[in-house]
Amino acid sequence: MAKNDRINQQILQQLTRDGRISNLELADRVGLSPSACLRRVQDLERAGVITGYRAVLNREAMGAGFVTYIGVGLGEHTKEAQKAFERAMDEAVEVVECHNITGTIEYLLRVECADLPSYKRFHTDILGTSPFVAAITTYVVMGSPKDLRS
User: Fold this and answer.
1) Domain with 16 in it
2) Domain count, the chain
């Protein structure tokens, strides 16, 4: 297990902001020698704290600037209903996040589409055809003053 100290927290913060930062720059920012910094990063990877690196995409530049969060309530509360819904959401390219949550609904989705008409198609053709969906509440994102994914 990797240490959870101030330096590791700084390393994680820097890598979260820029996963392509060079080891030399990272070491400089956290106040370590490059070799000590690399060892810590490798320890964090081996311990499973860092599970991967990925590209952060500009969805608007890709034609998917219409973002919504959708609360979904299922009509059946069975494992079969949940698995079927999750499979359908996994296949829907518009769904970029699907979270099984507690509360009055079962799922919270992050959906990204090109525009309102394409969202309406998703709402009607994907969510509207799922036999287990009983309630849908859509929240349109107007802006994101804090989003650590970008």
Assistant:
1) 6-46
2) 2
